[in-house]
Amino acid sequence: MTVKTTYNVAVVGATGAVGQKILKLLAEKEFPINEIKLLSSKRSAGKIISFNNKDVTIEEATPESFEGIDIALFSAGGSVSKELAPEAVKRGAVVIDNTSAYRMAEDVPLVVPEVNKEAIKDHKGIIANPNCSTIQMVTALKPIKEQFGLKRVIVSTYQAVSGAGTQATVELQKQAKQYLNNQELEANILPVKGDEKHYPIAFNALPQIDLFDEEGYTFEEMKMINETKKILDDQNLSVAATCVRLPFFTSHAESVYIEVEKAGVTVKDLWKELDSADGVILEDDPATQTYPTPLSAANKEAVFVGRVRKDLDNENGFHLWVVSDNLLKGAALNTVQIAQSVIKNNWL
Amino acid sequence: MTVKTTYNVAVVGATGAVGQKILKLLAEKEFPINEIKLLSSKRSAGKIISFNNKDVTIEEATPESFEGIDIALFSAGGSVSKELAPEAVKRGAVVIDNTSAYRMAEDVPLVVPEVNKEAIKDHKGIIANPNCSTIQMVTALKPIKEQFGLKRVIVSTYQAVSGAGTQATVELQKQAKQYLNNQELEANILPVKGDEKHYPIAFNALPQIDLFDEEGYTFEEMKMINETKKILDDQNLSVAATCVRLPFFTSHAESVYIEVEKAGVTVKDLWKELDSADGVILEDDPATQTYPTPLSAANKEAVFVGRVRKDLDNENGFHLWVVSDNLLKGAALNTVQIAQSVIKNNWL
């Protein structure tokens, strides 16, 4: 068996916020690239982007674009992935998909490398990158589950506008200026670009991320519920979620309540597991007001955990405050880490 | 027995944010005032404030200020209440105290009129107004508890900066301008004026409201836990709380997870109770993106509830999204409502 040492990599959605971060990480982490192909919609084709100090012309993504590609990183929206990921697989590429298109498909591994790297090896061509809010939560929960068992998760999120795309970021900036100038706030994007009504996000909180389903849950909440069970490989785990969009630009924060299975667990026990966990940085010292915040976690790769507390009324209950950059560990970084696992373990 | 028809009222802390709202409400609601006395620290004494189109000179609060006063409304901080509330009681006044000084004292009723008005009649001179984040939550929980029983509450809050005083409001405005002008953010007040470190709140989230206790809980979280049990008169109720300060000016929002005692309860059952509950307005229709937000609830008197959902994994679990103006129902309005109950029922 010949093992390749460099790879032909395609990035689909290269001009988007996540695509840009992926390119930056591939370069920074010296991903062993033989040839890179930057793909996008017809609209952006022809633009030139610098990658590793070389100019690369963006091409329109078509089925034929994937000829000779070893690894294709998709982050151009669900419909593009639905159309083109199978075409890439057909041509021999391994797809790492950053949209929700394949996450819950039975034959598609849904992977956070620190949590379930081994699932990658069963892939049939497509590996899915989970939703941003799920990734950071399961990264923090994994070491706890492994050591003490996990019965239940109840999470309330505090999510940054960049999760809704660059336009949402611009909208928050605009509205904040309007508010400070005593002008009326114009809302055209948030809470959900594709939904009917829009509400101001500046100096506000919107309890809607993505569209609503028939049970009154948002798709974002359902993603957290379903993806958490799949990644932690536990359909008996009870997961409840409320997702809220807030007026900050980067990083999602999460107030996570858990019940562990084992009796007699202490805050120190959790600290010990979190402190030694892969991808987690513990920032938790009330005496010195040490805890993570969206601003402190921005542009960093780790999942930060603080405010670990034992429920005063329930022996097995604990609180965690989990913060991470939603565009890094929540998206681009996790995608690149999956790609690194694929080549390191020869799981192509 | 002679029943008075007008009352001598003192407002202590008349120049503060809550004091100002109290004066506005007393006038708007035509509280039957014979004489009003506006009291404050030495610093503000001598200032003139307009009340009901009459100029009133602010006097320094001293024990003697309360001679002849029937009702004294305190919102000038815990130390002022500790010193002067007993002096007011000694001189025959009923004190309604808006600080945390007496809330957990055994012989002091802690009252939200919609929830436990009857507790007022056992007062020994002092009636306590609960913490803002507690008031709106128990107002929403009361009708549910009464009809279906309540086993458990797990709340994560989204709290406005005005809860930390006028200086915190000014700080958010300043920092937001600094951020938009690419200047460094100056933090001198939040998360807690009296604590050692200060962090930016603009475009951020701070998981600290009030100081930390030795268990790693903040006092705000302990207030929610202890006050909820006292007001709902149920020491067996399990309450867990995480309190977070966010970059908006007015209204607290709360992601409240509950477990009811009765089996087979539906979302429609909860809607019915909430819809007819005193002080509650149900705003819950996912199909039309109807839910309350901090901006939509600001300057309104009700407690707004939306996003009512049944936990998909736990038969007795439900989610609520509870929003209310923290300076109105959370503070000034509740204080005035207690005063109204006192005189209406002749509980002086």
Automatic annotation (TrEMBL), chains A, B:
Phosphate binds at residue 103. The keyword Ribosomal protein does not apply. The active site is at residues 132, 252. Its EC number is 1.2.1.11. The gene is asd. Homodimer. Belongs to the aspartate-semialdehyde dehydrogenase family. NADP(+) binds at residues 15-18, 43-44, 162-163, 326. This is Aspartate-semialdehyde dehydrogenase. Substrate binds at residues 159, 245. Keywords: Amino-acid biosynthesis, Diaminopimelate biosynthesis, Lysine biosynthesis, Methionine biosynthesis, NADP, Oxidoreductase, Threonine biosynthesis. SMART domains: Semialdhyde_dh. The keyword Amino-acid biosynthesis applies. It is an enzyme of class 1 (oxidoreductase). Coiled coil: none annotated.
